[in-house]
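Exercise 7.
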Amino acid sequence: MKKHLLLFFFIFSSFLAAQTTFVPDDNFEAYLEANGAGNGIPNDNLASTPGMQGLPFLNIQNQNIADLTGIEAMTNLFTIIANGNTFIILDVSNNTNLNTIIANNNPNLTTFVTAAGNNIRTLNLSNSAITQLDTSLLLNLETLDVSNNMIAYIECF
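Solution. The predicted structure, written as tokens, is:
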């Protein structure tokens, strides 16, 4: 009986782990909990993967978010508004449905990462600390604002 119970616990734990995404930033997790993408347990560094996949819009303005780890699970994300935070890296390489990113006034933002196949049309990273930017993979880009950064190198398509 103990072996069956242990096996059930292991399978159940694996199922739960597969349904959650690691979100180490408490402020980002709190936003997700408040907007239907949490797992119902505040401050456990986890969010509901299906809930995150269901979000088409992310408005995290002035939330004091320092780490966007977990955003990669938001595969149906269309728009990000992330002004006034403290994150260093904005990695949207897994968010291929993105159309608009407004992430200005992020004084610690030094790195923007994207991937081929990304559909970004509008990108605003103004008033940040970016030193180099590669937009060569953004074949649909129509509007780019990277004013007031420290860009020494920019690569375009």
